[in-house]
Amino acid sequence: MGKIFDSIDDRVAAFIREQHVFFVATAPLAADGHVNLSPKGLGSFEILRPNRVSYHDLVGSGAETIAHARENGRIVFMFCAFEGPPRIVRLHGRARAVEPGDPDFAELAEPFAPAPNTRSIIVADIHRIADSCGYGVPLLSFESEREQLPLWASRKGAEAVAEYQLENNRVSLDGLPALRAEKLRDR
């Protein structure tokens, strides 16, 4: 049976920290807009307070989460136990994207390892925390983090990564504004 929590307590926090992967889902307001669901890893999730979390958003092929956070802020994080006892935890909240150069970026980026492909820090205030059984989630064994993304970014270099973002991360699939060009040029 599922349970609703008022905040991220020690038990929920321990479960979240044990997971190697989590999923982030957002959607635009438009009924015909693209819903986005992204897997994340690389130790990029942080619990800031009992009802506030963040994750280190690294450069990727799209910038849907940033665009949706800017448009409406709706977000859900999902953590599944692929090892050990079955469990799923979902965190529903309101998100904002904090880009390098924004006033609170340095403080929010502090818990994460510096990376040349940092795109933003997504911060979410959580208003619903729920768990469920996870009986349908398969058992899988963690082997290791993938090295391709950090290697790609370090080979490319900061200037080429910023150029990639100008070309690929300024708008969402639906044409919503995502990364701000002036911030990219200032990096």
Describe the SSE topology.
Elements: E1 3-5, H1 10-18, E2 22-26, E3 36-40, E4 45-49, E5 52-58, H2 64-71, E6 74-80, E7 88-98, H3 105-109, E8 118-132, H4 148-156, H5 158-168, H6 181-186
Order of helices and strands: EHEEEEHEEHEHHH
End-to-end Cα distance, whole Å, is: 48 Å
Number of strands: 8
**Largest beta-sheet details:** 8 strands, antiparallel
What value does the Rg take, in angstroms?
17 Å
- The CATH superfamily is known as Electron Transport, Fmn-binding Protein, Chain A
Low-confidence stretches: none
Structural class: alpha+beta
CATH third-tier fold name: Pnp Oxidase, Chain A
Strand content: 25-35%
- Average pLDDT, to the nearest integer? 94
Quickly list its features.
187 residues; alpha+beta; Pnp Oxidase, Chain A; 8-stranded antiparallel β-sheet; 6 helices; 26% helix
